[in-house]
Design a protein that fits this description.
The structure is a homodimer. The first copy, chain A, has 10 helices and no strands. Chain A is elongated, with a radius of gyration of 19 Å. The structure holds a DNA duplex.
Chain lengths: 194, 194
DNA sequence: GTCTATAATCGGATAGAC
DNA sequence: GTCTATCCGATTATAGAC
Protein backbone atom coordinates (compact mmCIF):
# COMPACT_ATOMS: atom_id res chain seq x y z
CA UNK A 1 0.00 0.00 0.00
CA UNK A 2 2.28 2.69 -1.22
CA UNK A 3 1.28 6.22 -0.28
CA UNK A 4 0.93 7.38 -3.85
CA UNK A 5 -0.71 10.55 -5.04
CA UNK A 6 -4.44 10.48 -4.95
CA UNK A 7 -5.93 9.59 -8.30
CA UNK A 8 -7.46 12.50 -10.14
CA UNK A 9 -5.09 15.00 -8.59
CA UNK A 10 -2.20 15.16 -10.97
CA UNK A 11 1.25 16.35 -10.15
CA UNK A 12 1.11 18.66 -13.13
CA UNK A 13 0.16 21.67 -11.05
CA UNK A 14 3.16 21.27 -8.81
CA UNK A 15 5.44 20.70 -11.77
CA UNK A 16 4.16 23.89 -13.34
CA UNK A 17 4.84 25.82 -10.15
CA UNK A 18 8.36 24.45 -9.90
CA UNK A 19 9.07 25.33 -13.52
CA UNK A 20 7.53 28.77 -12.99
CA UNK A 21 9.73 29.46 -9.98
CA UNK A 22 12.85 28.62 -11.92
CA UNK A 23 11.84 30.77 -14.89
CA UNK A 24 10.79 33.72 -12.75
CA UNK A 25 13.98 33.40 -10.71
CA UNK A 26 16.27 33.30 -13.74
CA UNK A 27 14.54 35.76 -16.03
CA UNK A 28 12.20 37.90 -13.96
CA UNK A 29 8.51 38.37 -14.57
CA UNK A 30 8.51 40.05 -17.96
CA UNK A 31 10.81 37.67 -19.79
CA UNK A 32 9.10 34.59 -18.38
CA UNK A 33 6.48 33.28 -20.79
CA UNK A 34 3.55 31.00 -20.10
CA UNK A 35 4.58 28.89 -23.06
CA UNK A 36 8.08 28.29 -21.77
CA UNK A 37 6.84 27.33 -18.32
CA UNK A 38 4.39 24.88 -19.84
CA UNK A 39 7.11 23.46 -22.07
CA UNK A 40 9.40 22.97 -19.06
CA UNK A 41 6.65 21.03 -17.34
CA UNK A 42 6.02 19.05 -20.50
CA UNK A 43 2.44 20.15 -20.98
CA UNK A 44 0.41 22.40 -23.19
CA UNK A 45 0.20 26.17 -22.48
CA UNK A 46 -3.55 25.78 -22.14
CA UNK A 47 -3.00 23.85 -18.93
CA UNK A 48 -1.62 26.96 -17.29
CA UNK A 49 -4.86 28.73 -18.02
CA UNK A 50 -6.75 25.75 -16.76
CA UNK A 51 -5.04 25.77 -13.38
CA UNK A 52 -4.29 29.41 -12.78
CA UNK A 53 -6.26 31.48 -15.25
CA UNK A 54 -3.62 34.11 -15.95
CA UNK A 55 0.15 34.52 -15.90
CA UNK A 56 -0.18 36.89 -12.98
CA UNK A 57 -2.18 34.38 -10.96
CA UNK A 58 0.47 31.76 -11.64
CA UNK A 59 3.09 34.17 -10.36
CA UNK A 60 1.14 34.73 -7.17
CA UNK A 61 0.65 31.00 -6.68
CA UNK A 62 4.38 30.35 -7.13
CA UNK A 63 5.68 33.27 -5.12
CA UNK A 64 4.79 32.69 -1.52
CA UNK A 65 7.59 33.53 0.90
CA UNK A 66 9.88 30.56 1.55
CA UNK A 67 9.65 31.05 5.32
CA UNK A 68 7.12 31.89 7.96
CA UNK A 69 7.31 35.60 8.80
CA UNK A 70 6.36 34.87 12.40
CA UNK A 71 9.18 32.39 12.84
CA UNK A 72 11.57 34.71 11.10
CA UNK A 73 10.92 37.68 13.33
CA UNK A 74 10.85 35.51 16.45
CA UNK A 75 14.19 33.94 15.62
CA UNK A 76 15.75 37.39 15.29
CA UNK A 77 14.33 39.27 18.25
CA UNK A 78 13.39 36.39 20.52
CA UNK A 79 16.75 35.75 22.21
CA UNK A 80 17.16 39.44 22.99
CA UNK A 81 19.37 42.25 21.83
CA UNK A 82 22.70 40.54 22.14
CA UNK A 83 23.79 39.00 18.87
CA UNK A 84 20.73 40.26 17.00
CA UNK A 85 22.71 41.59 14.04
CA UNK A 86 24.52 38.31 13.68
CA UNK A 87 21.34 36.25 13.85
CA UNK A 88 19.66 38.52 11.32
CA UNK A 89 22.58 38.34 8.93
CA UNK A 90 22.96 34.59 9.19
CA UNK A 91 19.26 33.81 8.91
CA UNK A 92 18.94 36.07 5.89
CA UNK A 93 22.01 34.76 4.11
CA UNK A 94 21.12 31.13 4.74
CA UNK A 95 17.72 31.68 3.19
CA UNK A 96 19.53 32.87 0.09
CA UNK A 97 21.68 29.74 0.06
CA UNK A 98 18.83 27.26 0.42
CA UNK A 99 17.88 25.19 -2.60
CA UNK A 100 14.18 25.63 -1.86
CA UNK A 101 14.15 29.24 -0.80
CA UNK A 102 16.64 30.78 -3.20
CA UNK A 103 14.55 30.50 -6.37
CA UNK A 104 11.58 32.10 -4.64
CA UNK A 105 13.65 34.97 -3.29
CA UNK A 106 15.44 35.44 -6.59
CA UNK A 107 12.14 35.54 -8.43
CA UNK A 108 10.65 38.12 -6.11
CA UNK A 109 13.64 40.43 -6.03
CA UNK A 110 14.60 40.06 -9.66
CA UNK A 111 11.08 41.04 -10.61
CA UNK A 112 10.54 43.66 -7.91
CA UNK A 113 12.21 46.43 -9.92
CA UNK A 114 9.77 46.28 -12.78
CA UNK A 115 6.79 44.21 -11.68
CA UNK A 116 4.33 46.01 -9.45
CA UNK A 117 3.08 42.84 -7.84
CA UNK A 118 6.56 41.79 -6.75
CA UNK A 119 7.33 45.20 -5.34
CA UNK A 120 4.06 45.11 -3.43
CA UNK A 121 5.01 41.75 -1.92
CA UNK A 122 8.21 43.21 -0.57
CA UNK A 123 6.58 46.38 0.72
CA UNK A 124 3.78 44.47 2.41
CA UNK A 125 6.23 42.22 4.17
CA UNK A 126 8.26 45.15 5.44
CA UNK A 127 5.23 47.11 6.47
CA UNK A 128 3.04 44.40 7.96
CA UNK A 129 5.57 42.02 9.41
CA UNK A 130 8.68 43.99 10.27
CA UNK A 131 7.55 47.44 11.33
CA UNK A 132 4.91 46.02 13.60
CA UNK A 133 6.92 43.68 15.74
CA UNK A 134 10.54 44.37 14.95
CA UNK A 135 10.34 48.12 15.29
CA UNK A 136 8.37 47.74 18.49
CA UNK A 137 10.98 45.41 19.92
CA UNK A 138 13.70 47.90 19.07
CA UNK A 139 12.21 50.97 20.68
CA UNK A 140 13.17 54.54 19.92
CA UNK A 141 11.35 57.18 17.96
CA UNK A 142 12.99 56.38 14.63
CA UNK A 143 12.74 52.60 14.90
CA UNK A 144 11.23 52.23 11.43
CA UNK A 145 14.01 54.22 9.83
CA UNK A 146 16.57 52.05 11.59
CA UNK A 147 14.82 48.93 10.33
CA UNK A 148 14.97 50.41 6.81
CA UNK A 149 18.69 51.01 7.16
CA UNK A 150 19.28 47.41 8.21
CA UNK A 151 17.12 46.24 5.32
CA UNK A 152 19.06 48.38 2.89
CA UNK A 153 22.25 46.59 3.90
CA UNK A 154 20.66 43.16 3.53
CA UNK A 155 18.90 43.96 0.28
CA UNK A 156 22.04 45.40 -1.30
CA UNK A 157 23.99 42.38 -0.24
CA UNK A 158 21.47 40.05 -1.84
CA UNK A 159 21.47 42.06 -5.04
CA UNK A 160 25.23 42.20 -5.37
CA UNK A 161 25.80 38.63 -4.29
CA UNK A 162 22.92 36.69 -5.81
CA UNK A 163 21.31 38.80 -8.51
CA UNK A 164 24.22 40.66 -10.10
CA UNK A 165 26.73 38.10 -8.83
CA UNK A 166 29.62 40.49 -8.46
CA UNK A 167 32.87 38.91 -7.35
CA UNK A 168 34.50 38.46 -4.93
CA UNK A 169 31.52 38.90 -2.63
CA UNK A 170 29.35 36.48 -4.58
CA UNK A 171 31.67 33.62 -3.67
CA UNK A 172 32.58 34.67 -0.14
CA UNK A 173 31.60 32.13 2.56
CA UNK A 174 28.45 32.93 4.50
CA UNK A 175 30.31 33.19 7.78
CA UNK A 176 32.79 35.69 6.42
CA UNK A 177 30.00 37.95 5.22
CA UNK A 178 28.04 37.50 8.44
CA UNK A 179 31.06 38.59 10.45
CA UNK A 180 31.38 41.74 8.36
CA UNK A 181 27.84 42.97 8.27
CA UNK A 182 26.68 41.95 11.73
CA UNK A 183 28.28 45.02 13.36
CA UNK A 184 26.60 47.24 10.77
CA UNK A 185 23.19 45.75 11.52
CA UNK A 186 23.75 46.02 15.25
CA UNK A 187 24.72 49.64 14.80
CA UNK A 188 21.48 50.41 13.03
CA UNK A 189 19.23 48.38 15.29
CA UNK A 190 20.69 49.50 18.58
CA UNK A 191 18.37 51.87 20.41
CA UNK A 192 19.99 55.30 20.21
CA UNK A 193 20.84 56.86 23.54
CA UNK A 194 19.07 60.13 24.06
CA UNK B 1 24.30 85.39 -34.94
CA UNK B 2 22.50 83.28 -32.47
CA UNK B 3 24.16 80.02 -31.63
CA UNK B 4 21.26 77.95 -32.83
CA UNK B 5 21.31 74.31 -33.75
CA UNK B 6 22.97 73.62 -37.02
CA UNK B 7 20.51 73.20 -39.87
CA UNK B 8 20.02 69.64 -40.95
CA UNK B 9 20.72 68.27 -37.52
CA UNK B 10 17.36 68.00 -35.89
CA UNK B 11 16.68 67.87 -32.22
CA UNK B 12 14.66 64.73 -32.74
CA UNK B 13 17.51 62.47 -31.74
CA UNK B 14 17.92 64.22 -28.42
CA UNK B 15 14.19 64.20 -27.80
CA UNK B 16 14.13 60.48 -28.44
CA UNK B 17 16.94 59.93 -25.97
CA UNK B 18 15.20 62.00 -23.32
CA UNK B 19 11.97 60.09 -23.81
CA UNK B 20 13.87 56.81 -23.77
CA UNK B 21 15.57 57.66 -20.49
CA UNK B 22 12.26 58.43 -18.86
CA UNK B 23 10.64 55.23 -20.13
CA UNK B 24 13.59 53.02 -19.21
CA UNK B 25 13.77 54.67 -15.78
CA UNK B 26 10.09 54.22 -15.02
CA UNK B 27 9.45 50.83 -16.57
CA UNK B 28 12.78 49.10 -17.07
CA UNK B 29 14.09 47.67 -20.31
CA UNK B 30 11.53 44.98 -21.03
CA UNK B 31 8.39 47.03 -20.58
CA UNK B 32 9.74 49.97 -22.56
CA UNK B 33 8.62 49.81 -26.18
CA UNK B 34 10.15 51.49 -29.17
CA UNK B 35 6.69 52.62 -30.20
CA UNK B 36 6.00 54.35 -26.89
CA UNK B 37 9.33 56.17 -26.92
CA UNK B 38 8.68 57.38 -30.43
CA UNK B 39 5.19 58.51 -29.45
CA UNK B 40 6.58 60.44 -26.48
CA UNK B 41 8.93 62.24 -28.80
CA UNK B 42 6.10 62.87 -31.24
CA UNK B 43 7.61 60.97 -34.13
CA UNK B 44 7.14 57.73 -35.98
CA UNK B 45 8.65 54.48 -34.64
CA UNK B 46 10.60 54.18 -37.85
CA UNK B 47 12.71 57.15 -36.76
CA UNK B 48 14.11 55.10 -33.91
CA UNK B 49 15.37 52.58 -36.39
CA UNK B 50 16.72 55.36 -38.51
CA UNK B 51 18.82 56.85 -35.71
CA UNK B 52 19.75 53.83 -33.63
CA UNK B 53 18.99 50.68 -35.58
CA UNK B 54 17.70 48.60 -32.71
CA UNK B 55 16.08 49.02 -29.32
CA UNK B 56 19.23 47.77 -27.65
CA UNK B 57 21.36 50.35 -29.44
CA UNK B 58 18.98 53.06 -28.30
CA UNK B 59 19.34 51.84 -24.75
CA UNK B 60 23.11 52.01 -24.99
CA UNK B 61 22.97 55.50 -26.47
CA UNK B 62 20.71 56.70 -23.67
CA UNK B 63 22.44 55.00 -20.78
CA UNK B 64 25.82 56.56 -20.35
CA UNK B 65 26.77 57.18 -16.72
CA UNK B 66 25.65 60.59 -15.49
CA UNK B 67 29.07 61.37 -14.07
CA UNK B 68 32.71 60.94 -14.92
CA UNK B 69 34.11 57.86 -13.19
CA UNK B 70 37.49 59.53 -12.85
CA UNK B 71 36.05 62.54 -11.10
CA UNK B 72 33.91 60.31 -8.93
CA UNK B 73 36.76 58.20 -7.64
CA UNK B 74 39.03 61.21 -7.21
CA UNK B 75 36.42 63.08 -5.20
CA UNK B 76 36.13 60.12 -2.83
CA UNK B 77 39.72 59.08 -2.28
CA UNK B 78 41.51 62.30 -3.17
CA UNK B 79 41.26 64.16 0.16
CA UNK B 80 42.52 61.14 2.07
CA UNK B 81 41.06 58.59 4.45
CA UNK B 82 39.41 60.96 6.86
CA UNK B 83 35.77 61.51 6.01
CA UNK B 84 35.85 59.08 3.09
CA UNK B 85 32.66 57.28 4.09
CA UNK B 86 30.84 60.55 4.40
CA UNK B 87 32.04 61.84 1.03
CA UNK B 88 31.13 58.56 -0.62
CA UNK B 89 27.67 58.53 0.90
CA UNK B 90 26.94 62.16 0.08
CA UNK B 91 28.26 62.00 -3.47
CA UNK B 92 26.28 58.84 -4.15
CA UNK B 93 23.03 60.10 -2.65
CA UNK B 94 23.25 63.45 -4.38
CA UNK B 95 23.62 61.72 -7.73
CA UNK B 96 20.34 59.95 -6.98
CA UNK B 97 18.67 63.26 -6.20
CA UNK B 98 19.79 65.07 -9.34
CA UNK B 99 17.21 65.74 -12.03
CA UNK B 100 19.67 64.83 -14.78
CA UNK B 101 21.35 61.87 -13.18
CA UNK B 102 18.44 60.15 -11.44
CA UNK B 103 16.62 58.91 -14.56
CA UNK B 104 19.83 57.42 -15.91
CA UNK B 105 20.63 55.67 -12.66
CA UNK B 106 17.07 54.48 -12.24
CA UNK B 107 17.05 53.09 -15.75
CA UNK B 108 20.28 51.21 -15.26
CA UNK B 109 19.45 49.73 -11.89
CA UNK B 110 15.81 49.04 -12.59
CA UNK B 111 16.84 47.10 -15.66
CA UNK B 112 19.94 45.49 -14.20
CA UNK B 113 18.02 42.62 -12.62
CA UNK B 114 16.67 41.29 -15.87
CA UNK B 115 18.57 42.95 -18.69
CA UNK B 116 22.00 41.53 -19.33
CA UNK B 117 23.32 44.72 -20.86
CA UNK B 118 22.41 46.78 -17.79
CA UNK B 119 23.96 44.28 -15.44
CA UNK B 120 27.11 44.32 -17.54
CA UNK B 121 27.26 48.12 -17.27
CA UNK B 122 27.23 47.89 -13.50
CA UNK B 123 29.76 45.09 -13.35
CA UNK B 124 32.12 46.84 -15.74
CA UNK B 125 32.01 49.99 -13.70
CA UNK B 126 32.76 48.15 -10.48
CA UNK B 127 35.46 46.08 -12.04
CA UNK B 128 37.22 48.61 -14.25
CA UNK B 129 36.77 51.81 -12.31
CA UNK B 130 36.47 50.91 -8.65
CA UNK B 131 38.62 47.88 -8.07
CA UNK B 132 41.52 49.39 -9.92
CA UNK B 133 41.93 52.69 -8.14
CA UNK B 134 39.71 52.51 -5.11
CA UNK B 135 40.89 49.14 -3.91
CA UNK B 136 44.47 50.17 -4.49
CA UNK B 137 43.99 53.30 -2.46
CA UNK B 138 42.52 51.30 0.38
CA UNK B 139 45.22 48.72 0.76
CA UNK B 140 44.87 45.39 2.49
CA UNK B 141 44.58 41.91 1.05
CA UNK B 142 40.78 41.87 0.89
CA UNK B 143 40.34 45.38 -0.48
CA UNK B 144 37.99 44.25 -3.24
CA UNK B 145 35.73 42.46 -0.80
CA UNK B 146 35.58 45.57 1.34
CA UNK B 147 34.68 47.66 -1.68
CA UNK B 148 31.90 45.15 -2.41
CA UNK B 149 30.60 45.48 1.12
CA UNK B 150 30.47 49.27 0.84
CA UNK B 151 28.75 48.92 -2.54
CA UNK B 152 26.19 46.55 -1.10
CA UNK B 153 25.21 49.20 1.44
CA UNK B 154 24.91 51.89 -1.22
CA UNK B 155 23.11 49.71 -3.71
CA UNK B 156 20.59 48.50 -1.14
CA UNK B 157 19.96 52.04 -0.06
CA UNK B 158 19.28 53.13 -3.63
CA UNK B 159 16.95 50.19 -4.20
CA UNK B 160 14.93 50.75 -1.04
CA UNK B 161 14.85 54.52 -1.35
CA UNK B 162 14.49 55.19 -5.05
CA UNK B 163 13.36 52.00 -6.77
CA UNK B 164 11.02 50.36 -4.26
CA UNK B 165 10.41 53.66 -2.47
CA UNK B 166 9.87 52.20 0.97
CA UNK B 167 8.99 54.70 3.67
CA UNK B 168 10.20 56.27 5.85
CA UNK B 169 13.67 56.01 4.32
CA UNK B 170 12.50 57.13 0.88
CA UNK B 171 11.61 60.56 2.28
CA UNK B 172 14.43 60.96 4.77
CA UNK B 173 16.69 63.97 4.12
CA UNK B 174 19.99 63.25 2.43
CA UNK B 175 22.00 64.49 5.38
CA UNK B 176 20.19 62.25 7.83
CA UNK B 177 20.92 59.19 5.72
CA UNK B 178 24.51 60.28 5.13
CA UNK B 179 25.06 60.58 8.87
CA UNK B 180 23.76 57.05 9.40
CA UNK B 181 25.59 55.14 6.73
CA UNK B 182 28.90 57.01 6.72
CA UNK B 183 30.18 55.07 9.75
CA UNK B 184 29.20 51.81 8.05
CA UNK B 185 31.13 52.71 4.91
CA UNK B 186 34.14 53.83 6.92
CA UNK B 187 34.04 50.55 8.80
CA UNK B 188 34.19 48.58 5.58
CA UNK B 189 36.77 50.74 3.84
CA UNK B 190 39.16 51.11 6.74
CA UNK B 191 42.30 49.06 6.25
CA UNK B 192 42.11 46.18 8.69
CA UNK B 193 44.90 46.04 11.22
CA UNK B 194 46.84 42.84 10.97
C1' DG C 1 -7.50 16.67 -17.16
C1' DT C 2 -5.34 17.41 -21.35
C1' DC C 3 -4.74 19.12 -25.84
C1' DT C 4 -5.74 21.47 -30.59
C1' DA C 5 -6.82 25.43 -32.81
C1' DT C 6 -7.25 30.03 -32.91
C1' DA C 7 -8.45 34.66 -31.61
C1' DA C 8 -6.69 39.26 -30.67
C1' DT C 9 -2.92 41.93 -29.70
C1' DC C 10 1.47 43.74 -29.66
C1' DG C 11 6.34 43.63 -30.31
C1' DG C 12 10.67 44.95 -33.19
C1' DA C 13 12.29 45.59 -37.61
C1' DT C 14 12.09 46.70 -42.76
C1' DA C 15 11.19 48.81 -47.50
C1' DG C 16 10.37 52.56 -49.86
C1' DA C 17 7.76 56.98 -50.93
C1' DC C 18 8.13 61.88 -50.07
C1' DG D 1 15.06 63.45 -42.23
C1' DT D 2 10.56 61.90 -41.78
C1' DC D 3 6.58 59.14 -42.47
C1' DT D 4 3.36 55.27 -44.38
C1' DA D 5 2.67 50.71 -44.85
C1' DT D 6 3.76 46.28 -43.75
C1' DC D 7 6.09 41.99 -42.50
C1' DC D 8 6.90 38.60 -39.25
C1' DG D 9 7.25 36.63 -34.97
C1' DA D 10 5.71 36.05 -30.25
C1' DT D 11 2.49 36.67 -26.56
C1' DT D 12 -1.64 36.03 -23.57
C1' DA D 13 -5.94 34.23 -23.45
C1' DT D 14 -10.13 31.63 -25.10
C1' DA D 15 -13.34 28.05 -27.11
C1' DG D 16 -14.16 23.66 -27.54
C1' DA D 17 -12.92 18.69 -28.90
C1' DC D 18 -11.28 14.38 -26.87
Amino acid sequence: MAIGRRPGISRTREELLTAARRRFADLGYDKTTVRAVAADAGVDPGIVTHFFGTKDAMFRAAMDWPFDPDDFVRAIVGPGRRGMGERLARTFLELWQGAESQPRLLAIFRSASTHEESAALVKEFVHDQLYGRLAEALGGADAELRVDLALSQLLGLAMLRHVLQVEPIASAPVEQVVARIAPTLDGYLRTPRR
